[in-house]
């Protein structure tokens, strides 16, 4: 590969976008969400967070436009991408990006607008969880029906179709800050239910992933950043349960759970305690996966070349930082909050580094060009429409 940009028609390069590109908008939106949760606000923080939010929305629009070009140029290949193992799992990244845009609208838009936006966000929430439920059901069903995957290839990316469900808890938690009681009760219950679905699916896939690590070789060097995806399920479930639990006392002060018992039970307080305990319980699970991935990556960092997997450095670990901040807020601990703020700074630096590496790869023709887009060439080859043969694989 030379240092000169690859001379290819612009429309051709634009049509080579794959679902893994939406890990970029996942990570950018996650940074915007993380900045809105900072325990030590300062002048300009909201402006910085808003800039990340706007940039994320612009990127999401551009990627959607590119995906539309891909669909129009090769509709059959696009449909195959929804079940092909090289690309399909990353369809979940698209919907997580949607969730984070809704999250940022709540964080940065509601304080500057009227009640109409609060109502609109409630509607968007119900549309989103309907879509996330459909993704979790139909995409896994399509993959199970059409593909045959090996445990030797198991990676945390297999969890990604459940990721839209896994961010529902944190999304519901932030929406509850402005929702009225009646709609807030419905959002809270739905948030817990969908979060439980996502966590259960992730837990099952955890067993496959750990089986692969104990019985087969470690992932290839370029795929090792993808190990951080395993951090997200525990981290976002931890953050979601804590935030939903903290909102519960205001929504469910007391409740009669049984007609046989006339004594009302402080359900909201019970849910707050359960959410906090469960969140702490899961936090260290997320940290363990983070430490495991970090050590594994550091062992080969000098031999790693850039891939879209690098965006996994950001998004899953944002969940860890948000969970840390949530725990610090619940405990009133400045020390724990400070750790969360430190993680935020580290993740912003990492985002700048990965974005720079991505732009460099784009300029040099190392992506959106033949043989350099994992999944796309393989999908088109299967359909007999390939121009070139794909070399790389992402799982």
From TrEMBL:
The keyword Transmembrane helix applies. It comes from the Eukaryota. The lineage of its organism: Eukaryota, Fungi, Dikarya, Ascomycota, Pezizomycotina. It holds the Pfam family SLAC1. Its main location: membrane. This is C4-dicarboxylate transporter/malic acid transport protein. It is a multi-pass membrane protein. InterPro entries: Mae1, SLAC1/Mae1/Ssu1/TehA, Voltage-dep_anion_channel_sf. One of its GO terms (molecular function) is malate transmembrane transporter activity. It comes from Eremomyces bilateralis CBS 781.70. One of its GO terms (cellular component) is membrane. It is found in: Membrane.
